[in-house]
């Protein structure tokens, strides 16, 4: 088992550990599994039955506490569990049978692992005596997922099921959250056993460290008040620790600028004057440049991802580094830390607030006036924007911006991967945590629709929009059927440029506009430079959506944009899909080309910012 240090957070299930009178009943292993899920507080399971897991589906039918949502593909179950977890803060649960059912969960498990999302994946396995014989529908899913799970279990003794489920939920939700796999042999599900609850867990190697070391906190506070050009570099760990309030207090107390990574969007309000935006390959110029010019990189719950740092040895070259993270393995992994801090982000921030105030009381206060003069100049000179579309055509940025404006900051937005993902992060204003769901680390196409479905299952009273590309949408749109049949009325905005947009952008910039196999809406012989004639798009997303019980709408003209979005907002009895036909040549800017230094950021194509100093 991989050890991760931390505190119980959103999603912990204290029922698994609470003292009290013990329930003892004789039942099958399958019944024990369902009772265990009920006991840890699981209320929703996304899955598909099959031979090895079938014994569990019989008692599941009788449960009044656990709702099962029958998906159309196991990948949809895994992403739905992730979307549920990201939106609610609770552990997401998915279930599949052995062999191909289990292997279809590998992509969402890897996705959840990269983004530290707490899910428990339950899979059936062939009977214990058949394990290792290449039996029908056998796959070593524990071996396959070992590198991409926080921990996994193979259960062959039915008596172990309650303990394993309790441990799985505890491990998934505490410390650095992540996926846990529970693989249960079919004969263990069928055998008689004694169900006991509560259970004693046995995790001698799992000792989450939650409280940061006081000396390290004091050293970090001293660096912060003595810095001239600090930046609070905030990652997804702060969001997962529910530490948005503490982050805002520290930021406003110190006056330091804040950048939030793709996985941290919403934990600090976009509208806050101290927010510089998102760093990284497609981050804002002020955010990217501030990290390059800073003298103190104050890192909270972030992991120095390559999409943020660019060429690592040129990243933040003048900075000392404070690195606070729940996972000690992340500290120093990519960038050495001058002050390493292991601990839960919420506790780290709470202690930092006290330590910084103590420095202030002792007469030590940072003066960032000159720093903010430069930052504000960059914010004014290099705002995030876009070129208008050709006359009569829709701009994808305009579409996404209007959705954000009309729908508002209380909704949940799930994005696929590619250009539309970056535009959504740039042009929707996020003010609250857990309103932005996306696949950051793995970059999984097809994430948006099932993740939105999971979010809607967990937050039925909140509007949920999937901002998807036409490439991503064609990977998992079958889950619209699941949404229709389970009263999960999500909205899907398909940003339809007829191509794999981000790949096409790279072909434009780096491959001499040779558009090899990126055109989606027509067959061989079409270069993708011009859109196809009206009525020849394959597939027709409006007809496809209507075939799955959703409302299908199409918008092609700027003058219709607001009316179509409002029409979708008024339909709440079934899913809605809007096919937004946008022009193909829109690109995501700013951009740092892969493998280059962040100093090489381009504000627009061929336009490199001039910062007016000798570090340019």
UniProtKB/TrEMBL annotation:
It comes from Kitasatospora cineracea. Residues 217-352 form the Thiamine pyrophosphate enzyme central domain. Signal peptide: none annotated. Pfam families: TPP_enzyme_C, TPP_enzyme_M, TPP_enzyme_N. Pathway: Amino-acid biosynthesis; L-valine biosynthesis; L-valine from pyruvate: step 1/4; Amino-acid biosynthesis; L-isoleucine biosynthesis; L-isoleucine from 2-oxobutanoate: step 1/4. The keyword Repressor does not apply. GO terms for molecular function: acetolactate synthase activity; flavin adenine dinucleotide binding; magnesium ion binding; thiamine pyrophosphate binding. Keywords: Amino-acid biosynthesis, Branched-chain amino acid biosynthesis, Magnesium, Metal-binding, Thiamine pyrophosphate, Transferase. Residues 27-142 form the Thiamine pyrophosphate enzyme N-terminal TPP-binding domain. InterPro entries: Acetolactate_synth_lsu, AHAS_TPP, DHS-like_NAD/FAD-binding_dom, THDP-binding, Thiamin_PyroP_enz_cen_dom, Thiamin_PyroP_enz_TPP-bd_dom, TPP-bd_CS, TPP_enz. It is an enzyme of class 2 (transferase). Its EC number is 2.2.1.6. Belongs to the TPP enzyme family. GO terms for biological process: isoleucine biosynthetic process; L-valine biosynthetic process. It catalyses: 2 pyruvate + H(+) = (2S)-2-acetolactate + CO2. GO terms for cellular component: acetolactate synthase complex. This is Acetolactate synthase.
């Amino acid at each position: 088992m991989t050890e991760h240090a931390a505190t119980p957070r959103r999603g912990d299930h204290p029922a698994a550990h609470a003292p009290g009178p013990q329930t003892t009943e004789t039942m099958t292993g399958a019944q024990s599994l369902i009772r265990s899920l009920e006991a840890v507080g699981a209320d929703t399971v996304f899955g598909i039955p099959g031979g090895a897991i079938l014994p569990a589906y019989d008692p599941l039918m009788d449960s009044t506490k656990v709702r099962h949502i029958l998906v159309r593909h196991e990948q949809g179950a895994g992403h739905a569990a992730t979307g549920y977890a990201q939106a609610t803060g609770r552990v997401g649960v998915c279930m599949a049978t052995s062999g191909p059912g289990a292997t279809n969960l590998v992509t969402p498990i890897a996705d959840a692992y990269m983004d530290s999302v707490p899910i428990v994946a339950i899979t059936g396995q062939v009977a214990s005596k058949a394990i290792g014989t290449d039996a029908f529908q056998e796959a070593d899913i524990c071996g396959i997922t070992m590198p991409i799970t926080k921990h996994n279990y193979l259960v062959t003794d039915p008596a172990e099921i309650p303990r394993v489920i309790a441990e799985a939920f505890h491990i998934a939700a505490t410390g650095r959250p992540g996926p846990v796999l529970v693989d249960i042999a079919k004969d263990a599900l069928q055998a008689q056993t004694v169900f006991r609850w509560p259970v004693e867990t046995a995790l001698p190697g799992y000792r989450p460290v939650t409280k940061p070391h006081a000396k390290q906190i004091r050293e970090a506070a001293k660096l912060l008040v003595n810095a001239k050009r600090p930046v609070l570099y905030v990652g997804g760990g702060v969001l997962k620790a529910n530490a948005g309030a503490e982050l805002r207090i520290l930021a406003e107390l110190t006056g330091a600028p804040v950048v939030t990574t793709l996985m941290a969007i919403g934990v600090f309000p976009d509208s806050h004057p101290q927010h510089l935006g998102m760093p990284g390959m497609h981050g804002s110029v002020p955010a990217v440049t501030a990290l390059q010019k800073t003298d103190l990189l104050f890192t909270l719950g972030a992991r120095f991802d390559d999409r943020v740092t660019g060429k690592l040895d040129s990243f933040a070259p003048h900075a000392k580094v404070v690195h606070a993270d729940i996972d000690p393995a992340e500290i120093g992994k990519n960038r050495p830390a001058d002050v390493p801090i292991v601990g839960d982000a919420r506790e780290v921030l709470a202690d930092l607030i006290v330590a910084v105030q103590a420095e202030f009381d002792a007469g030590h206060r940072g003066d960032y006036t000159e720093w903010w003069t430069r930052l504000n100049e960059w914010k004014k000179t290099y705002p995030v924007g876009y070129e208008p579309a050709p006359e009569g055509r829709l701009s994808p940025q305009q579409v996404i911006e209007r959705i954000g404006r009309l729908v508002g900051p209380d909704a949940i937005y799930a994005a696929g991967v590619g250009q539309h993902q970056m535009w959504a992060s740039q042009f929707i204003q996020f003010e609250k945590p857990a309103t932005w769901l996306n696949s950051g680390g793995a970059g999984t196409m097809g994430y948006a629709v099932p993740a939105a479905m999971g979010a809607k299952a967990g937050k039925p009273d909140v509007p949920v929009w999937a901002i998807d590309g036409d490439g991503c949408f064609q990977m998992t749109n079958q889950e619209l059927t699941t949404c229709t049949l389970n009263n999960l009325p999500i909205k899907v905005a398909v940003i339809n440029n007829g191509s794999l947009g981000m790949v096409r952008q790279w072909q434009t910039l780096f491959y001499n506009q040779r558009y090899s196999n990126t055109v989606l809406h027509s067959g061989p012989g079409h270069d993708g430079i011009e859109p196809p004639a009206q009525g020849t798009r394959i597939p027709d997303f409006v007809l496809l959506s209507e075939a799955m019980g959703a409302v299908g709408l199409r918008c092609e003209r700027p003058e219709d944009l607001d009316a179509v979005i409002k029409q979708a907002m008024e339909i709440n009895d079934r899913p809605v899909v809007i096919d937004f036909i946008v022009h193909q040549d829109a690109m995501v800017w700013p951009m740092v080309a892969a493998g280059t230094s962040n100093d090489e950021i381009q504000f627009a194509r061929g336009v490199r910012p001039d910062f007016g100093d000798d570090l340019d």
